[in-house]
Amino acid sequence: MDKSRIMVKDEPWGKIMLLESKKSVMKPRILLALLFVVMAVLLSGCQKNMNYKDTAAFTFDGAKVNLSEMMYHVLLAKMQEELYTSYMKEDNQATDQKEVKELSKALTDAAIDNAVKYQLFYGMALNENYSLTEEEKAECLRRAENIQKNFGEETLNNYGLTIEDLTAIQEKIALATRYYSNYIDSFSIDKEAIRNNLDIADYKQYKINYLFGQKTEKELLAELRDKALTEDFKELSEEAGIKSGDLTFFAGKDTFGEEKILEDTVISMKEGEVSEVIETVNGFYILKLISESSKDAFEKAVEEEYEKERNEAAEAGYQSLKADHEIELNKDLQKVINR
Question: How many CB atoms lie within 10 A of CB 164?
Answer without folding.
Answer: 10
